Amino acid sequence: MGSPALNAPAVEVHDLVREFKGGIRAVDGLGLEVRGGEIYGFLGPNGAGKTTVVRILTTLLRPTAGRALVAGHDVVRDGDAVRQSIGVALQEAAIDPLMTGRELLRMQGALHGLRGKEARGRAQALLERVGLPEAGDRRVGGYSGGMRRRLDLALALVHRPLVLFLDEPTTGLDPTSRAALWREVRSLNDEGTTVFLTTQYLEEAEQLADRVGIIARGNLVAEGTPESLKSRVGEPTVHVEIADPESLEGARTALAGLGRLEPADERAPTRVALRTAAGKSAIASVIRALDEHGVVVEFVEVETPTLDDVFMAVTGSTLEGAAAADPTPAGASA
């Protein structure tokens, strides 16, 4: 299967609407575009509509109105073509625990027209790719959570899809397994696969996504690169700790031309806070200016806005997974 031109739309959504009984609009006029060859992070609180959007894009649910195309195919009129073009690893995927990983891969291959030696070879290649060659002949019911998620990914890759949909791919994984899956997603993307990633973990989106879309109340409320989204919330803040509180005014005078000084805090007489778009790049200038004014610096640190700040600003809430996230790769169910 050929790959789409880099940066050509892999997913196009126009005025998408999905209503449920009682007139409830889970998706309300949504529009978005995912470029070919990028990783697109799709974020949203529970009930925002992101799961409904993914189900529409993967032909599991019909839209009430509007239009959606995946790999150039209309999800309503060309459902078969869409399904041949996509790989899907959803949270609710049902896998027979009595079958082995190899059997499941060969069965998936058969569904896509692979037979005999080709099916066996593809199954072995994918088991090796996701780090399960020694577990391929074990029943899936005995797999750990990390092994199960890696098998999910392998099953989604059997037919070499153009667009890969991953729904909370690191759910329940330990840090080592999460990091391994992240590496595999990056590798697939480097090979040209477009990845549509839904997640409730901001660390995951920031580490993997080229662009992020945030959905709330059934519509897109923010979109852009992680850095551009964070820049909308505010500039980085350079925090300077000086040695002598008597030097505070001198320090503030020295830094006044480098950005916007935060008001002095009587509870922190040796702390100066400077907002500047330069962020970490301003550290050298800050230290040099303070040295020229005879101010002794204890330490300097830079605080930058986070995707959690962005999410709060545009939705009015924090993402459920954000509070539980740790500095290592993390994931949670949505």
- Give the N-to-C terminal Cα separation: 32 Å
For this structure, what is the CATH class of the largest domain?
Answer: Alpha Beta
User: Helix count?
Assistant: 11
**CATH topology group of the largest domain:** Rossmann fold
Order of helices and strands: EEEHEEHEHHHEHEHEEHEHEEHEH
* Poorly predicted ranges: 322-334
Q: Major β-sheet, in short?
A: 6 strands, mixed
Shape: elongated
CATH architectural type of the largest domain: 3-Layer(aba) Sandwich
How many strands appear in the DSSP assignment?
Answer: 14
Number of domains: 2
- Strand order in the sheet with the most strands: 6-7-8-3-9-10
Q: Mean of the pLDDT scores?
A: 88
Oligomer: single chain
Q: Strand fraction band?
A: 15-25%
The level of helicity is: 25-40%
Describe the structure concisely for a colleague:
Helix content is 33%, strand content 25%. It has 334 residues and is α/β, with parallel strands linked by helices.
Protein architecture, described:
By secondary structure, the chain is an alpha/beta fold. It folds into two domains: 9-231, Rossmann fold, CATH 3.40.50.300; 235-303, Alpha-Beta Plaits, CATH 3.30.70.100. Helix content is 33%, strand content 25%. The strands form three sheets. A six-stranded mixed β-sheet has the order 6-7-8-3-9-10, sandwiched between helices. A four-stranded antiparallel β-sheet has the order 2-1-4-5, with helices on one face. Strands 12-13-11-14 form a four-stranded antiparallel β-sheet, with helices on one face. Helix 4 (116-129) packs across helix 5 and helix 8 (226-233) packs across helix 11. The model is unreliable at 322-334 (pLDDT under 50).
